[in-house]
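Dear support,

I submitted the protein below through the web form. The confirmation email said the job was done, but the results page showed an empty box. After a refresh the structure appeared. I'm attaching both so you can tell me whether what I see now is the final result or a partial one.
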Amino acid sequence: MGVELTQSDVEAARTELCKRSLAYFAQQCWHVLEPATPLKWGWALDAICAHLEAVESGDVKRLLMNVPPGTMKSLLTSVIFPAWLWGPRAKPQKRILATAHKMDLAIRDNLKCRRLIQSDWYQTRWPVKLAGDQNAKTKFENTNTGIRECSAFATITGVRGDIVILDDPNVVNGGDADLLAAELSFTEALPTRVNNEDSAIIVIMQRVHEKDVSGIILGRKLPYVHLCIPMRFEQEKPHNAIGWQDPRTEVGELMFPERFSESQVSELETVLGPVAAPGQLQQRPVSRGGGMLKSAWMNYYIVPPALEYRFMTADTAQKTGQHNDYSVVQLWARSTIGQAVLLDQLRGKWETPDLLPQVRAFWLKHLADRSSGTVLRGIYVEDKSSGTGLVQTLRREGIVILPVQRNRDKVVRASDAAPFMASGNVLLPETAPWLSDLLGEIEQFPSGAHDDQLDPMFDAIQLVQMTPRQQAEWQEFQQVQQGRRYAR
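What the results page shows now:
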């Protein structure tokens, strides 16, 4: 015979579950915040909650979450999460500073959070009392010295927070001045707003530009745990340092079909257009003026197809500064049906003395790899600047170096490569860790911050389309090069 639970028992169990799970608490308090709107829940919201829980536990102190608009990101992060900390998690002493790109949005969420905390539903379970002398629309305090304060991001001021929340810090369609203001706030003002070394910073936003706050974090490789959830699943499977991984398996599969149907997403993609949609929906921003090449043209492989031969193409940077391009060496192959297959890539910022051993090791690694049953023909390197030193040194070591003269503008070279790419003839490794960066360069060309991976790709596409006669001329050129090497 089962034990009959009283209403008091049920409420106690619910209260305990609210303590254990932010997602459960969010679902339970929904009726307070949105009484007229039915709640739609999906795995993406569970993922956001799990990452916020990692901040509460202290396992994560820097968190970046990129999700599309309309996914409850502000409500979960700026409204429900602070209330969960003060009540169910019994941390009313926490001081929270929350920002948005517009002050009225920051105030909106501050008021929602206060309304939730002051509700009968909340106070019955977690009687957190607000201080009467600090209960304004931009700042309220509880009797345990906890504070929830809001500010516009570009003018971030106020108390130092134990948790600082940057909710959509960038303006959609903002210009260079807006980007610069956000960058200065993030790099110069924000570091003074955290309370101590145990304080946490949460950035949650949709991507709006390659140089937005997310772009700064990712470009400078700042130590943030990154949760990235594109509206449609792409070939790459996002995952991060706390073990989260996108559960989808089918390319094009929607993030939140309970909330955004196929027809809704298609309409959004059409309305936003080819510039805004990749950033706001897919979290892969495209520079305005970009879009000449499409990542959708790419095909992918787990196991490479049958190959005819392999070769390398290289693009060496002149400087190693923060805003300079990278040096890149790519291992390509021509498949037996004429496709360009990218097998591996070396990318980094090295001065010439450090670049040489990197390229040498990359060559020797793949020279020794006999798994494809193909020969490795040589390295094509642009014969200028730092590439000249590479050509001269490695050729003396017996490595087949083939100088390339790029006499035409890279936009013209991209135009030459585009039909081959659009036909689906470029194959990329599905699980490569650098795949996302490469796809970003493709989408942003010719206006992206970097295009270092594209020059060697254009070379490779040209090479695999060579006619048999051109192949014979290449072989003759290789023999001449080897003869010169031995003559030395």
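Response: this is the final, complete result; the empty box was a page-load delay. The mean pLDDT is 86.
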